Every structure is written in structure tokens, then in C-alpha cells.
Amino acid sequence: YILEPGEYPTSEAWGTSDPSVGSLKPMRLGCPSVEKPGEPRAVVYEAPGFQGRSWEVSRDIYNLQQPEDSQSPHLASVGSLRVLGGCWVGYEKEGFRGHQYLLEEGEYPDWSHWGGYDELLTSLRVIRTDFGDPAVVLFEAMDFEGHGVEVSKALPDVELVQHGPSTQAIHVLSGVWVAYQEVGFSGEQYVLEKGVYRNCEDWGAGNSTLASLQPVLQVRAGRGGRGLPGGGTWSSGAPRPHAEVAGWRTCLGAWGGALEGGGA
């Protein structure tokens, strides 16, 4: 559940009849950003909290658990990572397949911080295209047939521009975009670079549902980073009983609440 500024006197006000809340964390506001796109550099750690063996990379990695050269460490898993420069895409499976996760410059102490469905992160790819003047055209028919809707800024719901819930083709005119399966920049995400996508398989999706999208913006030095409203996170972390929440007030930023074991 996404909670924007305002008051929620009952659980029904945030969209559920169950008052149980297992975790709560602030959501990052604003478009994704990159400060040093030409200086890709990331450090991958085997364990959460930047512990265990590490591997510093500056190029695409087809399989983090089976490096192509003998000098690189063999990591049994990816528990955390630091993105020191550039904008990256992390993939659930080797060979840049499976769930996609946009990785901005910043720290990711565990898989929940990169929005993972689970702890699996097996390949990494650097985004090397130009981030300037983002523009994208969405088509409801395959092969760019019929009417197209051009978008040049963050769009929390494609229906705001009279575009239906089904997107069959996409033409990224410029910049880098992240498309989401749910409204409000949530759900499964797909990273789109300049070029043409004739069907949903081209952007790695199993169906044509896209409900929101936003560009990745290049920012000046000192203005990037993964800022969170208010700072701090309350999270279930280790197994614990549900908290019974009768109501709450969101004073700053947007927050995501989740039932235990579920997503925001």
C-alpha cells in the first residue's frame, strides 16, 4: 500500500479491511537520477550489510556467480551493493534475464532496497546511452500501428493522457525510461533505452500491461543520490508479529506499508 501525505483514520482508508502491517518504509520521491553516467562503478558484496567477499565492477557482468576470468571472485550470492557511479540495471537471472531492477548511484544494504522480489541478483548491465531530453511514444497496437501518445515527463498513470492499460509497442525517442506494471511507479519494472520495442517481449515483459513510467534524469554533482523523506525505516526485518494499526497520519513524503511477507 502506498501512503501519500494525508490522514488515514481507518484501514479501509488505505485500501484494506485488515489492519495488520508487517513493515513500513519511506518511498523515494522524484524521478530516478544519475550524476556520473560516464563513470560506471559498482561494488558487489556477497552478504547483506556490505559484508563478505566483494567485487568491484565497471562493465556488464553476464553472471556474477560465474565470472568469465579467473581473477574475479566467485560470489555465492549477492547480498548488498554500492553503486558509486553510473546507472545500472540488475537482473534476477544470468544473461540479463528475469526481473529487472534500476540501480541508481547509492547504497543497497540488502535486496529489499533495490526493490527485489527476492534475494536473487545474478547479472548487471551498465546503461551507456544519453540521458538528455527524455521522450517516449506509447502505442496500444503492435508494430506502432494506430494512434501514439508522446510522453516527456513522469506519468503516474497512463490513463491521464487517454492511453489504455495495454501498451503493445514503444518508441523511445531519447533518454532512459523506467516503465511499471502498476500505477504510481510500482510493480514490475522495465528499463527502456533509446530505440524501438515492437512488442512486450522486446522490453522483457510477459504481457502488455503498463500503467506508469518515468525518465531517469541526469543531475549536476551534489544533487543526486537516493534521498528518502524524513530518513529512517521501520521494517519487520526478522520475523515478528503483525502490528495492528488503527490509523495513521503521513506528514512528509510517501510511505509503503506491507503485510508480513508481502510487497508494498
TrEMBL record:
Pfam families: Crystall. Gene3D superfamilies: Crystallins. InterPro entries: Beta/Gamma-Crystallin (IPR050252), Beta/gamma_crystallin (IPR001064), G_crystallin-like (IPR011024). SUPFAM superfamilies: gamma-Crystallin-like. Keywords: Repeat. SMART domains: XTALbg. Residues 40-85, 86-128, 175-217 form the Beta/gamma crystallin 'Greek key' domain. Belongs to the beta/gamma-crystallin family. This is Uncharacterized protein DKFZp434L1713. It comes from Homo sapiens (Human). The gene is DKFZp434L1713.
